[in-house]
Amino acid sequence: MMTAVKSKIAEFFFAKFGSEDSHIQLYRSSTPLFKGAAGTFGIMVTGAGLSFATTVLLARILEPGDFGLYKYVMAWVALLSIPSSLGSDQLLVREVANFHSKKSWGHLRGILRWSTRAVFFASVAIGSIATAVSFIFAVKDAAMRYAVLTAMVFLPVSNLVALRQSAIRGLNHVIYSKLLENILTPTMFLVSVLLLYFFFTPLLSPAGLIAMRVSVYSIALVIVCILLRSFLPATTFQSAPAYQTKRWRGSVISFTLTSGINTINKRADVIMVGVLMGMDATGIYAVASYGAEIMMFIIMAVNTVLSPIAARLFITGQHRQLQQITTISARVVFMLSFFLCGLLILFGRNFLLIFGPEFTRGIEAFVILAVGKMIHVSMGLSGMLLNMTGFERETAIGSALGVVLNVSLNAILIPVWGLQGAAVSTVIGGIATVILLNVRCADQLGIKSSVFYVFKVRPKP
Fold first, then answer.
1. Residue 397 pLDDT more than 90?
2. Residue 80 in contact with residue 127, Cβ under 8 Å?
């Protein structure tokens, strides 16, 4: 039954792309992508359920101010992870896929060693500077001091876990990477929160929760290192490390800028609500933002699986097939996201009530963000395509306008419209970014990834 349904879907989507033989060939080649995306999506949905349960639990057992402080500090961790991770997670997916397909084991070992050292030292340095600056100039509250200090310990550990997960993705073992990221780690953290709540209540504070995250991610780091070593060919460890340091540094700069822009677009609203409206408003808005982020799960699942595939198709010159798979993926993602957006709008108030009656104050912001995420998804996969094909600088340049719009509008609209102003600013910044990336992807690759794409474009050689 499922095979017949998939065949009909494939026939419908492939009707625009040439002969019957090409339909069959493309269907067969894209089957692993859809299976992988379906498996990844299932894992991400399960992980979202675990994360949702944890967030609801924290919102229920913490005071709104403590919950807001926890989300506020973790938003700063996400922001600081941009320069400290050096964009190496995206670089590893592309380079590991590249070197593995070419059987260049020396370079594969080199990129793993170089990225690990660079990210570790960058994380420690940036975390130390951030702690010193916050203690001297900004942080006066004792609870916030402890939370910030613990968060800076968490920074290098979480970055190294993400780095190893990216290497596993580059080796095309996406499911294992997502199982660790979305199932094992959230489960351990949820269990830890429950243990704190029932047996160590005095430690149930923002700093205590972040310290528990440090413990959980330390265990995850050991596990992911063991997994990566088991997936790497034995010849990798027998080969002398080879480095392309100059090229990697150039890519790291672009990836870091792109990651920074994307994270600011995602986190600036939470941080600026905290600065301009206080911790209670931050907690309410963070829940609304969290709910709307569910819209991104579908495209994130496809992106995770499609990234190494896109890198390999581009390297081997299969541009037409890359266009076809991209178009199909974008259309499927949009249809599912459109349906999900309708559900979120219809049951948005009920969703927010799960966290508590006070969180329904964020319903307007929740609806604005949900619709904005749906439009964002409809713009397709252009950023990922540019990053995986060596045009990461285009991604950074195209994303710059979006982050400027986002931060500027947040500063202007939050004092005027409150939570709704933060939501509108974030939506406008995100949509501006993906429109520009779509244009750059069409110009540089001859590939259009928008769901509204109708006309054929000849891929560039």
1. no
2. yes
Structure confidence by residue, pLDDT tens digits, 93-141: 888 888 887 888 888 888 888 988 988 998 889 888 888 877 776 556 6
pLDDT tens for 186-197 read: 888 888 888 887
So what's the pLDDT on residue 25? 46
The first and second tokens of residue 8, run together, are 């009909």
Domain ranges within the chain, ordered by starting residue:
1-48+260-461, 62-243
How far apart are alpha carbons 260 and 277 in whole angstroms?
Answer: 24
Dig out the tokens for 389 from the structure.
């094909």
Contact indicator for 344, 295 with CB cutoff of 8 Å:
yes
Higher-confidence residue: 361 or 43? 361
Residue count of the chain: 461
Tokens of residue 237, six digits: 């460890």
Residue 62's alpha-carbon distances to 203, 206, 211, 214, 254, in angstroms, are 12, 9, 16, 20, 39
Nearest Cα neighbor of 316 from 78, 24, 97 is 97
DSSP per residue over 329-386, as a string?
A: HHHHHHHHHHHHHHHHHHTHHHHHHTT-GGGGGGHHHHHHHHHHHHHHHHT-SHHHHH
Flag the least confident range among 1-5, 129-133, 289-293, 442-446: 1-5
User: What b/e string do you get for 216-250 counting C-beta neighbours within 10 Å, with b at 16 or more?
Assistant: bbeebbeebeebbeebbeeebeebeeeeeeeebee
pLDDT at 264 over 80: no
Cα angle for residues 387, 217, 147 (degrees, 5° grid): 100
